[in-house]
Write a structure and sequence with these properties.
With 437 residues, this protein is α/β, with parallel strands linked by helices. Helix content is 39%, strand content 15%. It contains 15 helices and 13 strands. Strands 1-2-3-4-9-10-11-13 form an eight-stranded parallel beta barrel, surrounded by seven helices. Strands 5-6 form a two-stranded antiparallel sheet. Helix 2 packs parallel to helix 14 and helix 3 packs parallel to helix 4. The protein is globular.
Length: 437
């Protein structure tokens, strides 16, 4: 008898992924989080995620700002925030994003190793390569390297941190006392020279889980070598199947079994008792967005700009390059750019306002947006689950605590009843939860 396969649901806890009409919507409708300080919304969302049996929570790390006022409200750094959330939760996985472009690998290995200790084996590392020339200058870099170079640095960075984590242990000596042992790694690479050993003892899971968002060729190659879970972008089931095939081919080339690393796409749910109610909620949020302010930022995340006269003009697709022409140079996640470019081409006549809503204002970058009833949403998740190409979904809720509360109350019981979602906390170390044979 085969083992029951459950959906993984992970919460993406950054407010920058919310619908950008949320602050004004909360002002008019109530029910928003406690914002006495920037950590409290993260705390409230994390505790709700644990109540809803979520496998883990992601926190992205914005290594700089695109301007003031910032879209994200000035959140705390993810590892720091998760150190606090670790003592407020018991089971929720804590996957902190950190840049392989800007961090020092030894220092990050210590920080994440410490988070793994105090959370008792619930820590994860979402390895990203970062964007922005300006941000690089904040980290004493001469400039921001091209995409291929960033992924070569990321590959070596992950070699170093995993080497530091793997070359240590707690063991009992002949006198019956448990002691910590660690060995040097003597790494001498092109980008990093690290002697080791790491001076932080391992948790019960040995080392933090490694997650990665690999959308292009170089990213998929790094993910296939290092990742234990991949954060993907798939707007259709066909795209999910295609990505699964690409990842499996890369896994085999890296000497790892096909299907051994779950691909988990992002998803933004706009939900209600009926589809009409969900559409009303989306329109109410849209009405609170100052599109004239947001439109110039629609493509800044990719290092691209475009010109227009009015937000109600047709979007000038001819001003932005095809994805294949900028695969090695594009800023931010290549998969997000492909998703947005495809969305624009699939919606002829889309206005600047429409593209701004899809790329930024409605939250969740270019990840799939679902608008419908609770029951329709459960049917949708079940269909994707049955396909077998995804391991679950990284959920980005439009209104934070309001939408998460609704999801826990209305959707989670339906998923459990459908038999595709674990109705109890997963108490295993985080790496074991995502392991697939």
């Amino acid at each position: 008898m085969s083992k029951q396969r459950y959906l993984h649901l992970n919460l993406v806890g950054n407010e920058i992924n919310h619908h950008q009409g949320t602050p004004a919507y909360e002002r008019d409708h109530g029910g928003g989080p406690n914002r006495r300080n920037a950590y409290l919304p993260i705390s409230e969302m994390g505790k709700l995620a644990e109540e809803g049996f979520f496998t883990a929570m992601f926190l992205g790390d914005i290594a700089g700002t695109a301007g003031s006022p910032a879209f994200d409200g000035g959140p705390p750094e993810p590892i720091t925030a998760f150190a606090a959330l670790a003592v407020e939760t018991n089971y929720l996985g804590l996957i902190a994003t950190a840049s392989t472009s800007f961090y020092d690998p030894y220092n990050l290995a210590r920080l994440l190793g410490s988070l793994d200790q105090l959370s008792n084996g619930r820590a994860g590392f979402n390895a990203v390569t970062s964007v922005s020339e300006e941000w690089a200058l904040n980290y004493s870099k001469d400039g921001h390297p091209d995409r291929a170079t960033r992924y070569r640095i990321a590959d070596e960075f992950l070699d170093v941190v995993t080497g530091l984590w793997d070359n240590r242990e707690l063991r009992y000596d002949q006198d019956g006392i448990r002691r910590f042992y660690a060995d040097p790694i003597n790494h001498q690479g092109k980008n990093f020279q690290v002697l080791g050993p790491l001076n932080v003892a391992p948790s019960i899971q040995g080392r933090p889980l490694i997650a990665q968002a690999g959308g292009s060729g170089p990213g998929i190659k790094v993910a296939a070598k290092h990742a234990e879970m991949v954060f993907t972008n798939a707007n259709t089931r066909e795209q999910a199947a295609d990505y699964r095939a690409q990842l499996d081919e890369a896994l085999e080339a890296a000497g790892r079994p096909k299907g051994s690393v779950p691909a988990i796409p992002g998803l933004i749910p706009y939900l209600g008792r009926t589809r009409a109610e969900a559409e009303d909620k989306l329109r109410a949020l849209d009405d609170h967005v100052p599109y004239e302010v947001y439109a110039p930022f629609a493509l800044v995340q990719f290092g691209l700009e475009f010109t227009y006269d009015s937000v109600d003009d047709p979007f000038p697709l001819d001003q932005i390059p095809k994805p294949e022409d900028v695969q090695d140079t594009i800023k931010s996640t290549y998969g997000n750019y492909v998703g947005l470019y495809n969305w624009i081409t699939e919606h002829p006549g889309a206005t600047v306002r429409d593209v701004t809503a899809q790329s930024l204002a409605r939250g969740g970058a270019q990840h799939r947006k679902f608008v419908g009833s609770y029951d329709d949403f459960v049917d949708d998740l079940a269909t994707w689950h049955d396909d077998g190409h995804v391991g679950g979904f990284n959920l980005m809720f439009p209104t934070g605590v309001i939408a998460i509360r609704e999801f826990v109350d209305e959707v989670v019981p339906r998923l459990v009843d459908r038999g595709i979602y674990r109705g109890v906390p997963d108490t295993r170390p985080l790496r074991e939860r995502f392991a697939q044979s």
